[in-house]
Amino acid sequence: MRAHPVRAGVYTITRLVDGIFKAPVSALMHPEGAGRIADLLGESADTIPMPVNGFLLEGPDGLSLVDVGCGTVWGDTYGSLRRALDVQGVEPGDINRIYLTHLHGDHAYGLVDGESAYFPNAEVLVPASELAFYTDAAARAHVPEGRRGAFDVAARLLATPGLRLRTIEPGNVAEELCCLALPGHTPGHSGYRIGAGDWGLLLWGDVVHAEALQPQDPALGFTFDLDPETARESRRKALALAAEEKLVISGGHIDGFRLVMRDGEGYRLVPSSFLA
Ligand SMILES: [Zn+2]
């Protein structure tokens, strides 16, 4: 089955699902504490399922990806992005460019295939502040041991022959493709704004993990956010931008393409399938 793409400016964008991650509700964090989390959760189960996504972009400079899933590094329950590309008729060698939102394994490990690069012809673009942080030994020493995965990802990417990394700064990085700094989840975490004018789309990375919970109260975070306060600010910024400019959004863990609607003090995400 071919996935249903959306259009944004000069690009056609297809979501590729790599697998489903089940986050324990104990990973939720809120500055007002457990009572507020219980109110938001209601009767829900003890895990929050969320897809792990990458995106295929067909545009003026050929085929690109935004994030690439886990590959084979996180085991058999992930790695479906590769099959999803195959279903689209896309070979690994067809990909010209790969834009990373950040260096967590569920977004970047799909770049490696054992000892080699899975996408042999792709230039991999990574936000400069992200690569700088996760290659800094002093920074690593200051991060709690259980939160150091992205340092290992960066080291693995840099050690993989044929994997061409190039750093980028916020701003335009290709025609109708703009890198937007949304720090907090990780120091260099970024989104990509695609298209122009009334047909904009924002792939916002991991500003939201639980789409049914966090938009209504953007203060709600996950333990995966390295700097929770900055992540909250970026979440509010991304939600406000998408609502004001009527951007279609998706991200690393959103189950489709959405519009962001204001709803009381917060927001709610609604399917944008009528645009497909
Ligand atoms: Zn993620």
Short description:
The protein is an alpha+beta fold and 276 residues long.
Structure description:
The protein has helices spanning 34-41, 80-87, 105-108, 128-134, 137-142, 149-159, 228-244, and strands at 6-8, 11-24, 28-29, 47-59, 62-66, 95-99, 112-113, 116-117, 123-127, 164-168, 171-174, 177-181, 190-194, 201-203, 221-222, 248-250, 258-263, 266-271. It has 276 residues and is of the alpha+beta class. The protein has one domain (6-271): Metallo-beta-lactamase, Chain A (4-Layer Sandwich). The protein has a 7-stranded mixed sheet. The protein is globular. 45% of the residues are buried. The structure holds zinc ion (ZN). The site of zinc ion has 6 residues, from helix 3.
* Portion in helices: 10-25%
Please, what is the average pLDDT? Answer: 94
SSE order, one letter for each helix or strand: EEEHEEHEHEEEHHHEEEEEEHEEE
CATH level-two architecture: 4-Layer Sandwich
CATH level 1 class label: Alpha Beta
